Structures
1.
Amino acid sequence: MEIGFIENIDKKSKPNQNQLGFGQHFTDYMFEMDYIDGEGWVNPTIKPYAPISLDPSAMVFHYGQSVFEGLKAYRTKDDRVLLFRPEKNIERLNKSNARMCIPEIDKELILKAISELVKVDKDWIPNQKGTSLYIRPFVFATDYYVGVRQSHNYKFLIILSPVGAYYSEGFNPVKIFIEQQYVRAVKGGVGEAKTAGNYAASIKAQSEAKEKGFSQVLWLDGAEHKYIEEVGAMNIFIMIGEEILTPELTGSILDGVTRRSTIELLRASGYQVTERKITIDEIIEAQFNGRLKEVFGTGTAAVISPVGEMWFEGQKILINGGEVGNVSQKLYDQLTGIQTGDVEDEFGWTIDI
Ligand code: COI
């Protein structure tokens, strides 16, 4: 399908690359496409970034039938533009769509929309260390109707945001609160889908933790509050002795692209990586025995984020003296090196657009 184009004659000024923060600035263009009942996905268009207008009864406002994705574009030293494993995000978008009863979107069309949009906004891709262009595709229900059912009409939008580090700490180790009162997801629920409600449900715990000085919460499983699952905006890895553990995907954990890439990078470097259920008790015991070596989070937004402290039942679990560990540092350098084209991409993960 051809993508329409409406030129923006009113370009914005670009933010200072040293003060980007995360998700605060948006580019000149966006992509928009509609799903119309009986017709399917129609009118894919790249157009000037602008507010959209919806009737107050639009179903997304009431029942949250929506999904989103997050991936990044990077500008190389020789001015090429790279996307990192976009097919994985596209696959996951359609998996989330299926779980939320949203019609599937053609994979090639999504990739074409992302690539063409990034290309028209190429000048917005920052190139300083630790920066990138965050790509946010999202889909939501647009039927004008009050009553719970699957919508018959949807919108698919893609917006772009030049970003720096997700956490104000940058690459410095973050402090994490292990959440015991609230849960994020339950077996049979929507934890695995990248749907807005999962993030809405996390905000109360997240803001209470923030008030206590933590960056994020680590969620425990919804049934027994015994197994670690994921952190608000990232998956989690724990190094105990020489083994690196990460929670297995049980349906309530997000199948992170950076998580998958981290497992593959670590294994290629000879580390033993195990995906399995991990109890909070074994982490505490490992710390007690001096075997807890490193903890780090992985995510598109967060990249690799070392964890310096985790707090459980009022007790501090100090990790690697609160310093960035060797494995986290090496992973960060390797991953961002591949993403920005500075390190050879022997995995074939990046695509040149
Ligand atoms: C991402 O890492 O891309 C995410 O979607 C996490 C989000 C909370 C920023």
Note: Residues 70, 233, 299-301 surround 2-OXO-4-methylpentanoic acid (CB under 6 Å).
2.
Amino acid sequence: MSILLKGGIVVSAKKRRQVDVRIDGEKIVEIGTNLKENGSNVEDVSGCFLLPGFIDAHTHLELNNGKGSMSTADNFNTGSKAAVAKGTTTVIDMATPSKGSSLKDCLVSWNQLAQGNSSCDYTYHMSIIEWNSTIKKEIKEIINAGITSFKMYMAYDNLRTTDGEIFEAMSEIGQFHGMLGIHCENGDMVNEMIAKFVEKGNLAPHYHPLTRPDSVEAEAVERYLMIADLAKLPVNIVHLSTKRSLEAVERARIRNQKVYVETCPQYLVLDDHLYDEPNFEGAKYVCSPPLRSFNDQQALWNGVINGQINTISTDHCSFNFEGQKTIGKNDFSKIPNGMPGVETRPELIYTYGVTTGKISLERMIGLLSEDIARQFDLFPQKGIIQVGSDADIVVWDPLTIGVISATTQLQNVDYTPYEGMQTKGSARAVYLRGQKVAENGKVIAENQGAFIFRKISTSH
Ligand code: URP
Ligand code: ZN
Ligand code: ZN
Ligand code: ZN
């Protein structure tokens, strides 16, 4: 039976309208004022916004799967439940192969992990952690299998490739109009600085950000931009965290390079004083790039406001404090890098962006949904409430208040970096392809997520 959402305000990245929305099966079939019941099940959503399901374009739900204490605390099952409960209806997870394995094998294993096990829709960025003729040949096949975006690393010794390899991969991906995201940090410099601090016996979490200062990121961003200029590929910078990196991006845009920039909630609402929390709790915030200064945070908010930053995703990569983060108790460089966040992004950005007046709700929709869908070949199936699109709809109640806490979260991890932070607004109900899958922060229909096959769109 069809569903009629009546009395809400539909919001897109451009405008808001007081209209009713009819859903039939998996799709939105009618939008208009005062729609007749016509046998539909009517849901009164007055007082609420109807938002396109949020898309998180950067999660690591299954990093190091099977590698014991280093495998992420969440998996597809728990991470996707936490996502959808709060309004994220699609994740683009980082499929990360092990050394020596093919991209195709990695795709098969990620499908096995996700299939029947995800409560939101999903697709992947395929990570390229080494470069050879076999992997080069696979690029086209992976794109034909519906994965149109890739990720490479300039840091982490187990994941990074050389500049030459990045250039070759870019040239290959560019031929097919695919999208390549890069983790921008100068890996050599990070290694040097870790060695320097460790040698001096400076082993507390306090030293983590000092091994990855803003210049380490900005240099890598600048280098990536120059390599991409040579390869004639649009640039996609993931988890950008500093003012200096944004300045490098601006220089590239002035010379007419196409640059997409992602930042994450942690860089907007947390800062680097947290590394000095007592009792080793600074380890909870160890991620790369690290949390930054208040000054960087202001520059990032400005970038979000003025459009220098295109999207906000989470880089969700959860490790428990007890038993995982504590592996680095005597050496910060052994602390697994990453923080949870797939659950909290919508409420954080609504609270600290929209209700503070920094950004409009329309802008938030661009940052968390529509512009992500456009960038990653999901639009208009995802990212917008319009006739013919998937009925991924968040019924957003702007009047609720809450407090983020590990004791109430759905993420399967023993802490949250946002503990005690107050929130305003939340998802009252979440529809995934027409099915109500969450209500008042609880999942009511599990594992309804499906793989989204993407086709390259040359319009981005
Ligand atoms: O610390 C982080 N961000 N861990 C996840 C992997 C990455 O760098 O994206
Ligand atoms: Zn990264
Ligand atoms: Zn400190
Ligand atoms: Zn990441």
Note: The radius of gyration is 21 Å.
